[in-house]
Structure formats: C-alpha cells, structure tokens
Amino acid sequence: MIQSQYVKVGGLSVQYDTAGDCGSPVLLFVHGWASSSRMWREAMEALAGDFQCLAPDLPGFGESERPPAGWYTLPNYLRFLHGFCDSVGIRQAHMVGHSMGGTIALGLAADAPQRVDRLVAVNPVVTGRVWLNMGRFAGSPLRRAMLTAARALWPVAINPVISWSLQGDLATSPGMRRRREDLAKSAPDAVLSGIRAVVTSDISVRLAAISAPTLVMIGEHDTTVPPSEGRLAADLIGGAALKYFAAGHLPSDEQPDEFAEALREFLL
C-alpha cells in the first residue's frame, strides 16, 4: 500500500510517497517536468515486494511547497535530492529518473557516486535538447513576460485547458488525466523556469564520471525528448545498457507491466 508523508528539506515542506518494507533495498524515483510522484504509483505497487520505494514531489510540483522565484536551477535540484536523502535517512539507493528527473538522477550519480547503487534513466535530457526549440524561449523576454502573466493568472488560465484536454478518449486514460491534473497543480515558476533549468544544462561532459551500473530506457516514439539523448547517455556511461520500448515519452504509463518488469530484472 502506498502512503504519503511529509518531510522538511532545505526549509521546504516536501510530500513523498512510500511503499514496501523498510528492510528492503531502497528504490528512489524522481519524476519529470510538470509531473509528480503520482506518475510512479503503478511501478511502486508492482515493486513494493522487493524494494522500499520512495518518490518525492520535487519543489513546486505536486503537493510539495513552492520555493522562491529563481530557485529552479539544476544545481538546486541536485542539492534538493541530496537533502531529501539525508532527511529520510537514505545513504545509498537504486535511483530511477524520468525526463527532467533523469537529468537530475544522472547529475547526482556523477557528482555523488556513493549515493547511487544502480541507476535507471528514462528518456533523459542530456544536452538540453528537446523536440521543441525551448532553448531560445528559455532566456527570452517572452519567457519573462509569460512567467509574470502565469503567476497572476495560472489557476484561471489553466483550468479551461485542462477541461478541454480531458474530453473524449482522453477522459478514459488515467495517465493523461493525471498528467493534466499535475500540470494544473504545478507552480507556474516550476513549469516555466523548470524547463529552462533543463534546456540550458548540458551534463554530457559529466556522464563519464558515473560508476553505478546504469540502464537507459528509451521510448522509440518519444515526441518530447529525442531518443538520441538517451543513446548519447548510454554511449558516455561506461558499460551502460539500453532498453527500448515501443512507447512515447512515458513508457511507465503506456507499458506499465513491461516497465516494472524491466526495472525488476535490472535492479535485482
């Protein structure tokens, strides 16, 4: 059974989900941009018999507290993950990160190898490249104008989008519903500045420092992060393995049973 708890990390109140026994190997999940710990619940339920699973909401997302404007940088995400591990008593863990969470997990494994036992990066962003050309937007006056407007209008502006997007077939997809709900709940700074933190960071030069056994999972039909980003990560990390899914950006939603089994096979 999944339980939700709160912990203070760097002065912020952070919500996290847990499942499994405290005596089992620790498996830490890191969600992606405009998402939350909820994206991992099916995988956590499937793996709770083998692992003590934990999944925090990153600051500004889900139920976690919103940090001050300007907080959203890759170094701060890395410091947060270190602080979270310390706050819940994790010295070393298997780590799974998706998309932006994959970037964070890769960075932590490179900077603090003692923290990471085995590493799984799912459709990670490595060079800052995503399908949309967000690099120009990330530092532009347009981003600053959108952020100013979003801070004032976010609840009003996003609700019609959410309602419209959940019509028809999408209304029957739990994964799509959750993704829209998570977007609506996210702080506008987390959404617009969080993507800036990712697309303006190139961690490729740091990946050779990763010593943890690593598996890179790639959705062959990902239209958010080019599969070439994951392949580059696997090329740069010594001994890394590649696993392809006939899926898009979220194989954990699209092929949950296959996803959980691939994690189990690699981590056990």
How would you describe what is shown here?
α3 links the parallel β5 and β6. It contains ten helices and eight strands. It has one domain: 3-Layer(aba) Sandwich (Rossmann fold). It is an alpha/beta fold and 268 residues long. Strands 1-2-4-3-5-6-7-8 form an eight-stranded mixed β-sheet, sandwiched between helices. About 4% of the residues have low confidence. It is 43% helix and 18% strand.
Short description:
By secondary structure, the protein is of the alpha/beta class. It has ten helices and eight strands. The protein has helices at residues 41-47, 74-88, 100-111, 134-138, 141-165, 174-185, 188-199, 227-236, 251-254, 256-267, and strands at 3-9, 12-19, 26-30, 52-56, 93-98, 116-122, 214-219, 241-245.
Provide the fold topology:
Layout: E1 3-9, E2 12-19, E3 26-30, H1 41-47, E4 52-56, H2 74-88, E5 93-98, H3 100-111, E6 116-122, H4 134-138, H5 141-165, H6 174-185, H7 188-199, E7 214-219, H8 227-236, E8 241-245, H9 251-254, H10 256-267
Parallel strand pairs: 3-4, 3-5, 5-6, 6-7, 7-8
Antiparallel strand pairs: 1-2, 2-4
